[in-house]
Amino acid sequence: MKINFWQDIPSLHQESLIRNLADYNDVNLIVEQSSHYRKIESGWPAPNFGNARLIQRPNDDEIEKILLLPNFINILSGINVSPLLRRTLKIAIKKNKIFGIQSESYSNNKPSDLFRKFRSYYHNRVYSHHIKFILAMGLHGIKWFRESGFDDKQIFEFGYFINTPKLQGHQNNNRFTFIFVGRIDDNKGLDILLKSLSLLKDLNWTLNIVGDGPQKEKMIKISNQYSLSDKTNFFGRLENEKTIKMIEMADLLILPSKFKEGWGAVINEALMVGTPVLCSDICGASTLLSQSNFSQTFKAQSVKSLLIKLNYWIKRGSLSSEERQKIIKWSYCIDGKIAADYLLQIIEYSMYFSKKPVTPWSK
Question: What are the C-alpha distances in Å from 280 to residues 20, 82, 301?
Fold first, then answer.
């Protein structure tokens, strides 16, 4: 198979997928920017795309030449979301090329999302006969594109996929240990988590917070106001390897996003090291969570819903070593190689309309 990936930046969350595809296929990664500065500054290592060819900042003539390469499938990371993708889309339409789209949903919780919904309707009317398939992030992505009028046959649930982390070995904690990993901003829901935990402060738990952001100082003040300073630890920004180790040492990872979380790759990280997850139902990766990996969701922005689940976990206690191994074994279905095989099945179905593939994590 021959595939061109068109992206604004080299996505760290697509590194594993693209590298595994490039092991056995002809792959180009065409980008506008050379790196994701925020991710690298947050401790993520620079991505390694293996045998994939990286093409940066092509001009219009170069874009046209790449689009016209024989037998290549073109996959655009969104419609009209960056200068490179707008130029590529315009040239692809002019040359009557078909392509695939990879995209997250929007939140539907903000006034600006109404405009985005109308824009998606417009994109369906104008571009749908050029779009061969849509890789929609999680069930929210499926819902977004379905409600925008795209045909179900075009839409496939997809996700982000990370490199398999190196296991360090979990050790039981004296206190039930929660961990939050992410940018500390208005969307991530750390305030809701702290409020919920404040109602459980008489129980035996601790919360480790890894990350930085514009609301870090505000969250520290909230923690102090709730008298949680002896139970919460703010570690700031850490290297990814140290973060992974802390996730593995934790009893439960929490991602309480309030408005939008296109996927939430930290969920992949947790499951792949055997740590169960509790996230809000707005997260794209919530589609991964089930009894098979001892993980749950709660209603986004609901203190009551989160409180019930937190109380359950504290009283349930840590998973056994055998239960954590079951999560690790389950997580093979979100490995980059499995994701690469799944994408090839989607492309084959879109070209020949064989049996529609199902997600590896739903089998």
Answer: 30, 29, 8
Edge-to-edge strand ranges of the sheet holding 176-181:
232-236, 205-210, 176-181, 252-255, 277-280, 296-298
- Please write the tens of the pLDDT for every residue from 44-62: 667 899 999 999 999 999 9
DSSP for 185-200, written as a single string: SSSS-HHHHHHHHHTT
Which among 279, 262, 292, 298 is positioned nearest to 360, based on CA atoms? 292
Residue type, 3: I
For residues 200 and 310, the answer to whether their CB atoms sit within 8 Å is: yes
pLDDT category, 327, cuts 50, 70, 90? very high
Looking at residue 117, its pLDDT comes to: 66
- From 260, 191, 262, 259, select the one nearest 221 (Cα to Cα): 191
Contact of 193 with 254, CB cutoff 8 Å: yes
Q: What angle do CA 231, 263, 51 make, to 5 degrees?
A: 115
Give the Cα-Cα-Cα angle 180, 253, 195 (nearest 5 degrees).
Answer: 55
What pTM value is reported for the model? 0.92
